[in-house]
Amino acid sequence: MTTTTHPRSVADKPGTARLASIDILRGITMTVMIFVNELAGVSGLPWWNYHMKANIDAMTYVDMVFPFFLFIVGLSLPLAVRHRLKKTPSLPPLWMHVALRTASLMTLGLILANADDGDGSRMLLSPAVWAIVALIGAALFLNEYGKSERYASLIRGLRILGLVLVAAMFAMYRHTPNPGHSSWIDFSYPEILGLIGYSYLAVCILYIPTRRWVWAPLGWFLVLMAFNTLTAAKWLTVMDRLPYWFWPFSNGAMAGIMFAGIVTSVIFLGAHRWQALRQKTVLGLTFGAAALIAGWVLTPLGISKIRATPTWSFYSIGAAVLLFTALYWICDVKGKTGWAFFVRPAGSNTLTTYLLPDFWYYILTAAGVHYFDTHFTMGMPGAVRCAVFTAFILAISALLTRCKVRLHL
Fold first, then answer.
1. What is the pLDDT of residue 12?
2. What are phi and psi of 383, to 5 degrees?
3. Who's near 145: CB < 8 A, 6+ residues apart?
4. Which pTM value belongs to this model?
5. Which has the minimum average pLDDT: 71-75, 228-232, 405-409?
6. Which among 328, 235, 231, 263 has a CA at the least distance from the CA of 74?
7. Residue 224 near residue 230 (C-beta atoms within 8 A)
8. What Cα–Cα distance (Å) separates residue 103 from each residue in 154, 186, 255, 256, 399?
9. To the nearest whole percent, how much of the chain has pLDDT over 90?
10. CB–CB of 115/365 below 8 Å?
């Protein structure tokens, strides 16, 4: 008997631009990220509430937040590329968008990575105010203003003002890595946003030229994960001597996780011969289970987010694929999305939500408010505070989304 999809399903619409399951998975990931980032400042909780250190072969749910973001970027990439080429069937504008998106994420990452180290005595602003102004500038440039002809000049002016503010903040920035020695922006670590942006560039370099071949994403995924395995086994060591900006593929882990998202997107949304819901579900479950088995087999090479080992990658991929498969069935096939009302704005307005905790932190710092640095920082009271803070950020995100404040890359 042939299995068909629910009438509300989008499974038979390869051109669909947006899926509820992707937004909800992104929103859940964002919610967990806000919570665990805040939880990092709370002590006295069980070990599995924190990132594992690099010298420990273990991982926790906290270590899976970053790879889930990478996976979701991969999930969305085929849809985004298809949508852009449908609007403008030309590759140069597409590559221009890829370059602009990468540069924007790198810039935001460098702002966040450098803000706390700024030397207020060598700048015109305190580090916290510097970060606020820089982020406001980025927000002015990246905000989705719509296509109003009436306000076209105003919108253009706001974007230019945003660029000027960011450029001015970068030109002004100084930090003091050594006594008596002043230095400019430190490019050695572009924060999570920068790493996502650079991995996105690496994946686009491989995916866009081969996007018409249905098996290409799986092939690239296997190549990248094999590369990750060889580097973890110390059979390839040249990557350890290359700066991240020279080789965007790093040790293969981040780009491999992103390609796992693309493979999953192809399974559920691609134009292939396995269109029945049962076939797609079996393929998704098989891919997720295979990733978990591969992670288990490669355990002797270590388990670590910091070292980006293959087991960490495969376990994260397996969990992400299986969770997406479940969400796809619940949200897109059965049409049950009401339960996710509290995370969906964060999933559809991701960049805005991502930056909200940083804005809050820098505003409090600039105002000299340090209450939460010394209160509710232990055990269960601290965890409750983090949960309340997470709900507060999600509420602000929902309000901004309703007010059409949306940062778009």
1. 41
2. -65, -40
3. 151, 155, 158
4. 0.91
5. 405-409
6. 263
7. no
8. 24, 16, 17, 21, 28
9. 78
10. no
